[in-house]
Design goal:
This protein is of the alpha+beta class. It is built from 58 helices and 25 strands. Strands 19-18-20-21-22-25 form a 6-stranded antiparallel β-sheet. The longest helix has about 40 residues.
Length: about 1550
Amino acid sequence: MDVLKHKSFLEELLFWTIKYEFPQKMVTFLLNMLPDQEYKVAFTKTFVQHYAFIMKTLKKSHESDTMSNRIVHISVQLFSNEELARQVTEECQLLDIMVTVLLYMMESCLIKSELQDEENSLHVVVNCGEALLKNNTYWPLVSDFINILSHQSVAKRFLEDHGLLVTWMNFVSFFQGMNLNKRELNEHVEFESQTYYAAFAAELEACAQPMWGLLSHCKVRETQEYTRNVVRYCLEALQDWFDAINFVDEPAPNQVTFHLPLHRYYAMFLSKAVKCQELDLDSVLPDQEMLMKLMIHPLQIQASLAEIHSNMWVRNGLQIKGQAMTYVQSHFCNSMIDPDIYLLQVCASRLDPDYFISSVFERFKVVDLLTMASQHQNTVLDAEHERSMLEGALTFLVILLSLRLHLGMSDDEILRAEMVAQLCMNDRTHSSLLDLIPENPNPKSGIIPGSYSFESVLSAVADFKAPVFEPGGSMQQGMYTPKAEVWDQEFDPVMVILRTVYRRDVQSAMDRYTAFLKQSGKFPGNPWPPYKKRTSLHPSYKGLMRLLHCKTLHIVLFTLLYKILMDHQNLSEHVLCMVLYLIELGLENSAEEESDEEASVGGPERCHDSWFPGSNLVSNMRHFINYVRVRVPETAPEVKRDSPASTSSDNLGSLQSSRRPKVLQRENSGTAQVFSLVAERRKKFQEIINRSSSEANQVVRPKTSSKWSAPGSAPQLTTAILEIKESILSLLIKLHHKLSGKQNSYYPPWLDDIEILIQPEIPKYSHGDGITAVERILLKAASQSRMNKRIIEEICRKVTPPVPPKKVTAAEKKTLDKEERRQKARERQQKLLAEFASRQKSFMETAMDVDSPENDIPMEITTAEPQVSEAVYDCVICGQSGPSSEDRPTGLVVLLQASSVLGQCRDNVEPKKLPISEEEQIYPWDTCAAVHDVRLSLLQRYFKDSSCLLAVSIGWEGGVYVQTCGHTLHIDCHKSYMESLRNDQVLQGFSVDKGEFTCPLCRQFANSVLPCYPGSNVENNPWQRPSNKSIQDLIKEVEELQGRPGAFPVSISSETNLSKEMESVMKDIKNTTQKKYRDYSKTPGSPDNDFLFMYSVARTNLELELIHRGGNLCSGGASTAGKRSCLNQLFHVLALHMRLYSIDSEYNPWRKLTQLEEMNPQLGYEEQQPEVPILYHDVTSLLLIQILMMPQPLRKDHFTCIVKVLFTLLYTQALAALSVKCSEEDRSAWKHAGALKKSTCDAEKSYEVLLSFVISELFKGKLYHEEGTQECAMVNPISWSPESMEKCLQDFCLPFLRITSLLQHHLFGEDLPGCQEEEEFSVLASCLGLLPTFYQTEHPFISASCLDWPVPAFDIITQWCFEIKSFTERHAEQGKALLIQESKWKLPHLLQLPENYNTIFQYYHRKTCSVCTKVPKDPAVCLVCGTFVCLKGLCCKQQSYCECVLHSQNCGAGTGIFLLINASVIIIIRGHRFCLWGSVYLDAHGEEDRDLRRGKPLYICKERYKVLEQQWISHTFDHINKRWGPHYNGL
């Protein structure tokens, strides 16, 4: 780090640029001159010269992130050029400078390592808590280093330079053993450190990435020398490290570090050497002692993983689990766990197998468990952890012996195995697969995700599942799922276990595998993980298989089989599965020739002779073991037995036993043989050390070892002798009996078919459970040796009862009974669970699904069955049932929301398109809301205001929609429920102060309670029955009833609880929508406003229900909202309030409809404005006014009477509208044709006669006189036929009939009949009682036959026409416009979106906002009306409301649906809350791309858009979307 001496202006300039932390303008200035070649070289050299200074400034900087980005911005342009990088390397020692600078940088944050020998350790490691590591300050320098190493010429120099390699290994060793974890044994840690993030990032970026860079240049034979260099200095660094931490052969207990970069460098270069450079493995391996040391720490990590998953580290907090997960996580695994396992495989293949196996069980702390005795003491492990640690040890051995990632698999095979493992755990999206497959960090390997081989492998192993929807509204992405043949042939549980971050994923993979086998009929029961034949080993690693043929492992397998057979505690099916898997692996990989006595029995091997004669599994399987001496606690049952004098053998704490004859001569056997697996391993280690160094006798055992010594010293252990008389084969056959639950269940298959043995058809891949596994193993054993075959047959012949003495058979019988009982209980439980699940499912459907009313929970609202004396309600809070009373009323849980959906209906079938160019604009003049607005203002211009407000309905925009989940509660219970919610501090997604809550039963969102009116008493029943009164009588009754103010069973004067609640809910309804949507009167606050608003609420709800049914009633049946409709209760509340405003009987339209008055020719010429003529009235509004003015409950015959009278008016309006639409000639033709028939008997029911009469009456009012050009332009000349006229009249009347039928359905509970579209009119007419019952004969149906005139038709028509005469004389145009009412509205739709998202993005992301004329930072567009808005833009804020919120109020009365242009997601605003809905644009793999991060082309998903539209129309955003938050008007 020399002193800088500046010789040129460029150097001076760069110095100050660095000093001021790279100001952006200076950076741009310096980079702009780079095209000049001389400058480029000079600048690069200057940059290198200042490299140390850059590092110092970076360390001190407070804005290190910004500075880092700017450094890399420069360096990437300099060092990416290979020629330049090579030149600077040669001339300026770039590599030396970089490595030294990195070393210096890290030296500033070193601390003493506490690994192993805390006091005397000389090793230093980086401190992960330092800002330098926590903030990744080092990354620009490391990234430069990785960048230049990607150039072959530079990397070559690095790999040839021994000094550089030594310095680099020195740098790497700073990370060796960092972030040490010590297991907390007493208290939970107070503070969970999060330093592990920094540690993993540092190892990956500073150590692993450069390593992968170097490896990419060691791919061919010619580069062998480089590998030798790296391996040599790596081993030296490792040796120094072992010396520095004072390591002999025992790792310190209860500590683990996940960071061993030196081990991993060594492992990866070894792997490369064998795989690509054809190096002889042994030439780069160290001596045995070094190998023993090398394996200890990686093995310690594997054991610690098992401990962490067994919850032994639980007191260290969650972060330790985080480390275990990160270690195997997809971005880290190929730089961490894979090299570790590979290194262990290399060690295992070269070390003594007995030593290796015993080390494994000792590290996993399960040595004491491996005893034949039924009880034992474990000095290092609690009993509750024994089972999972034993499973961990066996699983580790299986992985070690099965994994071939570095032992012979090709890159394509690896990719395929990785992909299959990920897909088997869960279906995956394309992007998550890309993320989960460990990237081969070597860029030239051809497995860059997304490359050709990735796609081709994916299509070979997986099927694509297009995105689907679930009724709950959760949206799926496009998923890949494994093909059937992958489950059948390639599912590899070993790979799954290796790659799972969460243990539950292993279970998930097994569940999916089980489901596949059941579905495809391959295996009905509960399968075990399948056994899979492995890729053959690379010759260099053949030694690995010796592990399967060593006595220590055979003793362990024998002991475990015996324990499982004897039902000892702490053993699981998983243990058995692994044991059988290891036996099967051993048989697959046995030496071909079978020698009965191994030649190599010598030295310490002799200790095992008492167990097995040789080390070949095939021959050891048939070897019988008679007696075993064990050390057991005195309490154990074995102690009480008398031991036969003829035995002398022992298995201390573990695995030592012998056959009688050999050992009896050694009388000192009591001591000579008191040693365990642990002692055995120590001896081996000592021998190897003695072999390798003469002064080994001075080696001192580390202090820690006393903790691990054999537990023989414990006084309460005593010796017992067990009679065993079993071999592995006999144990397997008995196991078969035990698993199948039958005696003699195993029958050797070759007795029937000898062919099986000669060429056993053992598939590469086998499904099945424990029984099939045992059968496979026995078949393999028999086919590999004649002796085994004979012994198996012998054992099967003398089928023995299970091992223990007679007593046990009774016990076995008991356990069998117990099993049976258990099985039955299990079945019962399954049945109950299934029943419960189906109940829950049906409840969820009721609560969630808007479209399937059929499976609703029946609700006891008894409008449907008038015979029941009184409606009974269940309160979902207190659980009591009872009627609703005036003192204690019950209410329905309802959600009130303002809605403008109706106002979006248009008369055009084609939905509007979202504008994607300046030319396309959307004008809202043809929407239903606009048309109704125009009509009302036109009426208000010419007629009396109070009368205008009775002639129309409002609520097309901002109407109040009421919906319920169908659950009821007492209103007082509800109040206390709200109180408890108010006191509940948990952050809810709703605002209790605004009256919001969730239904206590189904959790559906709600904000009010609608009182149920006490009713349906017996005496009301006759009200439903038809009476035979004449229509004239009924008309009189209706008039009288309407005139009776407050003729309401509840007298308003006496304030009851019920009437208070009715008033408060009415307030809620009014407050739901904004004032501008309620107040249409010219005199603000006039009572007519309230009157209009109230019947319009009824209208809004009926119209919306009609839309939910698809715009017509052809489907019939109960209401779609079926039993969840609250219209009946709503009607009661509205009627109660409407009757407070009695209409002056003079103005009551009922009279004008049913009585002839004196026509006063002067009428309408007075100063004041006239009333609205009855022909300009909206008939549906009249219907609601008439019905809500009647006392409730209403009589059916009164209802029918009102409908009949109104139909006559409606029909006249239809005729008038028709007459205005047609041309002059048609009119005069009709006028004459009809006049001729006027005298016939049923003239009043003939549309021709009536039409001609209407034309002649209207003729008087100069209505048709201005037949100007505009008239012809307005109406296209249609040739009218009787059929087309009839259709025109029916279409005009249908909307009224539909609403009326719905109303009748809700008030009287009558079902709606289903029908074809063409007969809808006649079916509804007869359902409403307009058609006489005998009318079924005439074939072509004529709508006029439904007419039932209360007074002579021609007189009343004359009267009605006379009313508009004076108006049309002055305003013919307006008069005509008011007569043509547009009644055919199509269903509302959202805007149609373009196929490709790019078209939207290109137009809108640069578009300027019309309010502030800037390009918004977050542009959004409304999907209802196409308005472009600034999301969160302060520029367009009005009175603290941001533009989106404001627009949602103006366009949707509080509901807004916006597409966020820069994120491709849709956001819903509902009142004061908002939620992210998801995206309707998906990529080619059916995935969303939120925030456009992946930059894939996106295409419209029509199904999703349909779901969005459906939720908008059915007002179910609140119920279906769960993640709501307050927006505080800031969107």
